[in-house]
Each structure stands twice: as structure tokens, then as C-alpha cells.
Design goal:
heterodimer; B: 6 helices
Chain lengths: 141, 141
């Protein structure tokens, strides 16, 4: 229950951060990626601000033996630069540029009740399921 | 410093704070694509927190809609099929590549994960290419 309440608070703060930062505004995102056209660099500060805060906090937090509401850390352990890391990031990048949405801002934008974020998120869920289907097909052949 | 840049920095810092609280409280990476993908597994006690995270994000979105509705005012002049294609690519690519802008771009880079640094360079590079291509082909007006 504590982990769920904590996750609720994190989701809320995360959403407010995304909204304030400009990441929910698809034209700004496309403008940030449009370096060969009319480049709008503002969003570089979103990643910059987030990384500065989390870079420092990560080092302080990891001095603890375990998180506050769990008995152990659940951090990624993969180290290899795999073909799926590269291929997946490539596909994600193309979709991000085309739609102006990455997953976080798209989910927050559902609350606007506009059609495009909903169409995007439903398609995104379909894409996730498609990947599961593709990888189980590959395993079975 | 333009107000837009300041907002980006403040929003970014809030995102970094949210990611840090996720780590401090639950010992997890605040990666939205991974959390959303996990929602499509059969629900059990171990993944309740994902629904609470989603609930927090949606409440955050509603608060933004009430207090700062202009953050949802942005729309791209693109045909609707591009939104569907973008969603499919983002869903498929983020699960295949093991993360998105939040998981790789913020949390991973802060942990100095080589995988996340490579992923972030790739998805930004292909986001740039995607916008350039969409503009050249006239899809983005």
C-alpha cells in the first residue's frame, strides 16, 4: 500500500513537471527536434534540469541499504549495447519526431480529453502488444 | 533567460525530483514506457503501484487542465494517420529498446548507464531525422 501511494505521488509530481516544462506541447517538441529548420532549443533545459537533480539525488539515495518502502532496489542490470536497444531506440525516435509525443507527455495529455492524445496512446499500447507478439513469434520459430 | 527556458528548467527539476522520490521510496526507475507496458500484464499485488502511478499522472493532467490549460493547446498540422503510426512506433520501439525519454533519457543518464546514453543519442538523432523527413515530404505542413 505504501509503494502504491508513493507511486501515486510520483506520478502526480511527474505530470506537473511535464506540463510546466513544455513537454506536453507537441509543437515545442517538434521545434526542439527541428534543428535543420526553425530550431527551438528550450526543451534542452528540461532534460538538463531533470538530470542535474536526479544525478545528485541518485548518488545520495544509493548510499542507503534499501529504498524506504521496499526491501531491495529494482534497477536495470543489463550492460550490453544490444541490437534491440539500438533498433528500439531508432523506431522510438522516428515515432517521437512524427507525433511529437513520448510516452509520459502523451499519458498526461489524456486529461485534456482531446482526440489526438487518446489516438496516440491507444496506438502506443497496440505497438507494445505488437512487440510482445513479435518476440513470442520469434521465440517459437 | 526567456520565461520559456525558465519553465523548462523548473519543469525539468520537478521531473528529476519525481524520479528521485521513485528511487528513494520504491527503489525503482521512473520510466513511463516500462510502467505503462507493465499495466498490460495480469494485475497482481506486485504491480498495483503501476495503476497508482498512472492515476497520479492523470490527476496531474487534470490539475494542469484546470490551472494551465494552455499546456494542452498545441496541435500538429499533420494528418491523423501519422498520429497512429507515431503511436505504434513509440510503443513498439520503447519496449524493444527498454525505455523512453524518462527511463533512458533522465534516469539512465543520471546513473551514467552506457546503454541509456547510447539509446538517448539514437532516439534524439532519429527524432531529428524524422522531423526533417516529415517536413521534406510535406506531411508536417
Amino acid at each position: 500500500m505504501k509503494t502504491s501511494c508513493a507511486a501515486f505521488g510520483v506520478g502526480l509530481l511527474f505530470a506537473l513537471g511535464l506540463g510546466v516544462s513544455g513537454m506536453t506541447q507537441v509543437q515545442k517538441v517538434v521545434g526542439f527536434l527541428d534543428i535543420f529548420g526553425h530550431w527551438q532549443p528550450a526543451l534542452i533545459f528540461v532534460m538538463g534540469g531533470a538530470i542535474v537533480v536526479h544525478f545528485i539525488a541518485y548518488r545520495l539515495i544509493m548510499k542507503q541499504k534499501a529504498p524506504l518502502f521496499d526491501s531491495r532496489w529494482h534497477l536495470p542490470t543489463h550492460k550490453d549495447i544490444s541490437p534491440s536497444l539500438i533498433g528500439g531506440s531508432l523506431l522510438f525516435g522516428i515515432g517521437w519526431g512524427l507525433g511529437g509525443f513520448c510516452p509520459g507527455p502523451a499519458v498526461v495529455s489524456l486529461a485534456s480529453f482531446q482526440s489526438r492524445p487518446w489516438i496516440f496512446v491507444v496506438s502506443m499500447l497496440a505497438g507494445m502488444l505488437l512487440f510482445r507478439a513479435a518476440s513470442s513469434f520469434r521465440r517459437s520459430t | 533567460m526567456p520565461l520559456e527556458w525558465l519553465n523548462a528548467l523548473i519543469g525539468g527539476a520537478l521531473i528529476g525530483l519525481a524520479a528521485s522520490l521513485m528511487l528513494y521510496w520504491n527503489g525503482r526507475v521512473a520510466g513511463v514506457s516500462g510502467i505503462v507496458n507493465g499495466l498490460m500484464n495480469p494485475p497482481n499485488e506486485q504491480n498495483f503501484w503501476r495503476w497508482f502511478f498512472l492515476g497520479g499522472m492523470l490527476l496531474g493532467g487534470l490539475i494542469l487542465k484546470l490551472l494551465k490549460p494552455e499546456v494542452f493547446s498545441s496541435e500538429l498540422p499533420t494528418p491523423l494517420w501519422t498520429v497512429i503510426l507515431a503511436g505504434l512506433l513509440v510503443g513498439f520501439g520503447t519496449v524493444m529498446g527498454g525505455g523512453c525519454t524518462s527511463g533512458h533519457g533522465v534516469c539512465g543518464i543520471s546513473r551514467m548507464s552506457l546503454r541509456s546514453i547510447v539509446a538517448t543519442i539514437i532516439f534524439i538523432a532519429f527524432g531529428v531525422l524524422s522531423v526533417a523527413l516529415a517536413k521534406t515530404l510535406g506531411v508536417m505542413g
